[in-house]
Amino acid sequence: MLKLLSWATVILWMALIFFLSAQAAEQSDQLSSGITEKIVQAVEKVIPDVGLVTENMNHIVRKYAHFFAYLMLGALTVNAFCTSGVCGFKGIAAAVIVCVLYAISDEIHQIFVPGRSGQFSDVLLDSAGAVIGAFVVGNLRSKPRKT
User: Fold this and answer.
1) Cα distance from N-terminal residue to C-terminal residue, the chain
2) pTM for the complete prediction?
């Protein structure tokens, strides 16, 4: 049951990435602009004179979102592999391969979405997130637990 649940979380996370990638450029920009505005407001409450401009921050927030989405995908995927009995280097490598292939397919998918385009730089950013997520969780899962 745990194996099924761990793979279900991977599939659901992939579905969320697909859903967000399927949004037309205008809709995607509205979502990220709204999130950026909330982040800027929160930062300005803590540091009132920081002078952040929402429009300038939107690009940064979008790139962090790519990184974070694939960091989570890498973590969830290596967890699913470990739950299925493939841990250590093999589990990490398998998770990274799955995530990189998904990142490539995601950017290809965006070519067909109105106003969007596939970016090789996004594949690299997604892959970096996946590697870190898979490496951290894979190493945590590979450590013997003290009882």
Assistant:
1) 23
2) 0.86
